Amino acid sequence: MGETAASPNFLRRIFTSSQPPLQKHARLERNATRTTSPFWVMVQKEFGDHMRSWRFIILIAIIALACIGSIYTAVTALRDGVKSEQADNSFLFLQMFTVSDGTLPTFVTFVSFLGPLVGIALGFDAVNTERNKGTLSRLLSQPIYRDDFILAKFTASLLLVAVVLYSLGFLVMGLGLFTIGYPPTPEEVMRVVLFLFVATVYVGFWLNLAILFSIRFRQAATSALSGIALWLFFTIFYSMLVGIIDKATAPADSSALSILLRHANRMLLLNRLSPAYLFSEATSTLLTPGVRSLGPLTTAQVIGAISSPLSLMQSILLSWPQLVGLIAATMICFGISYVLFMRQEVRSKG
Amino acid sequence: METSIQGAVSVTEQLEPIIELKRLTKRYDTQVAVNGLNLTIGRGEVFGLLGPNGAGKTTTILMMLGLTEPTSGSARICGLDPVRQALQIKRRVGYMPDDVGFYDDRTAIDNLMLTARLNRIPTAESWSRAQELLELVGLQEVVNKKVGTFSRGMRQRLGIADVLIKRPEVVILDEPTLGIDPEGVRELLNLISDLSRKENITVLLSSHHLHQVQQICDRVGLFVRGELIACGDIESLAEQLDDEGTVTVELEAEGWNEDLIHRLTYLSGVIAYHGPQRNELVGGSTSASATLICSRDLSSEAALEIIQSGARLNAISRKQYGLDDIYHRYFEGGDRGGRNSSKS
User: Is it the case that residue A13 has pLDDT exceeding 60?
Assistant: First the structure.
């Protein structure tokens, strides 16, 4: 029943605009072309709600402070490095995002650590609060598609995340221009823009996961805790776990090269199950043009290679699988949310 | 039961049917929430769906709106199928869930405007309409106050405005009177019946509070454990209740004696006598009441017997079945059935 009902619905949806107006609702239907579609109405509403919420203001304050702090340390590190002429002067501008004098983590680390928290904070109560407050059944009795509802929640929050990340990123670039007085090349700007895009996708994954939890769990606290638990697991414990497995299963140093290589690849695969690892790989490729490979390289492969930075296209190519992996994880979460939400019965308050 | 359903259809024959449910059934894993529901509601009618908690009223409403799929059977609302054309139905049907929720940090008018925009009503038009409606439901003073500060009754009235902003053909109200004080209930119900009459809106309201619904409904349906056990206007419900054909006479008399008890018990037509027994007779002058279940109206005969036996008749009445009795009776029946089924 579900399948047969879904497909004509989907088709109808595509052709909504070309559908002939119905009876006495002709007036409404004609107006529909001039008024905002319900989907964007919901997006606007969600966006506005987030902007006004204290939760969002607090999060932004934390992240802005963290990022500006990291920029400060990066700039001092760069100055020292340039003075002592130890540092690699190529792509100096990008180093603002990736180097630190050791007092505070880098911008990238902050984004990879705090970004998921933003995602979780924006999404953990998206659906269950509406359900508990009784607004969900009222909203769904309006002429809107059910999937539009969760899609609108996701889109609004993702838009907000994108706005925040890009403004922070550009703020950092501007501050950097002022303090180090070293203009970026177009390629560097492109790399930063791409990095911010990857960061948005990464936060989008956590956002979607949080929305999934908010559909699955009726209590906002449960959903927030599960989101945070998963975040801590992936950012802190997962690498430790992989480390333990690595030690336990490592072949002897004297093993054949193929065995060592196979082991290294297996561990890499295990690591890449974590979205945090995928993100760190993608960002390091994009922000450090010197990174030439993300997997293990044998001496034979390195011999003859010219140690020069990769071009932008090559870096994108290198980080492409990681980006696709992140997007796929997001899509899977959304798919599960969709299935769960469509099957849930919407009753008022419970 | 068959007769009751046919009766219901004949009542609506003159009206264009706007809600038609045919053998609508919803089964959850183990239990049947709605069982083969047949119901037709005509345009402009005010229909009350009465039933105890958990009778399946809300499930029925959700199926009508396409918010949940029926296990079997079909529903047609405004000639549309809720499973396939849920969106068109939602455009024409206003639904107020029980304990309606609003965005607490938005003002009353903001909440209404959001609903209007979701229904694609142009801003200028919906703004004036929202103002009108808020005035209609008596919330003109708090238009720009946040809904979080509203009382239960105010929310409920805002809910009515919210339902009406899309100019619906059908309004479905789930437990609209729940948790409001009696005065508020009366205002709300008057508002609903006014609207139905003036704008020819079909109203379906569910409730477990009989007295409130009785006043404004053209017809009511009694809904117990997923089945519509009786349907019609109040009089026809009472008739349906009388299917056992008995009349209850209640009397109160002073000076009971054995002879009187004998006379009443063996009065022709009396099926059962509930009253003072012979061994209970103490003094002559105490007043006591008795109930006679009769096959026909025996109130005057019973009165005659009392007078003739020398007792003083203080009061006598033939018990008229109110909706309350009907309600109790069916709900008791439902309960008993529930206990039996759980035993077996």
Answer: no
